[in-house]
Amino acid sequence: MRSLVKAVNSVGVPLQTLVLVHLRVSQINGRSVQIPVKKREFEEAGEEDHRLPLVETWREHDCFTDAERSVLALAEAATRIDGLEDPVSDEVWAEAAEHFDEQQLAAVVLHIGLVNLWNRVNVATKQESVDWRINPKKWTPMTSRLTAAQ
């Protein structure tokens, strides 16, 4: 699985975009990562992306780029598949394809699948969701976690 993460990270999808997708998919699965909320908490944790607390309500905020919005919509559609004949509509796919080339889009889809897989493995093995507040000095910022896996 780490090799797949390396492959996802190697095709030019911005790391921040992958982090947003990771967070949103995990939220949908009920495996959300506890993240900083206040400015001081972000500083203590070393986290750079102050939009993280807004990911769950990304449609309501204009701080996300069109490219980020397209893959957040794709992530939601590809994760919420229960009872839907065609969960990923042609419109959702086309919007993402406007912002990412074929290889990058494949990496995003693989990333969505990997996050879903990790969520299920963690549930099956009774792993607790990560809470950065347990020890902020040992928190690995979301923006560097995927890089560290390389």
Short structural description:
With 150 residues, this protein is mainly α.
Question: If you had to describe this structure to a student in words, what would you say it looks like?
Answer:
The chain has 150 residues and is mainly alpha-helical. The protein is built from seven helices and no strands. The chain is globular, with a radius of gyration of 15 Å. The protein starts with a helix and ends with a helix. About 4% of the residues have low confidence.
List keywords for this structure.
150 residues; mainly alpha; 55% helix; 0% strand; globular
Mean pLDDT: 83
Largest sheet: none
How helix-rich are the residues, as a percent range? 55-70%
Gyration radius over CA: 15 Å
Shape category: globular
Low-confidence stretches: 132-137
Order of helices and strands: HHHHHHH
Topology, number of strands: 0
**How far is it from the N-terminal to the C-terminal residue, by CA?**
11 Å
What structural class should be given to the helix and strand makeup?
A: mainly alpha
Quote the beta fraction.
under 5%
Number of helices: 7
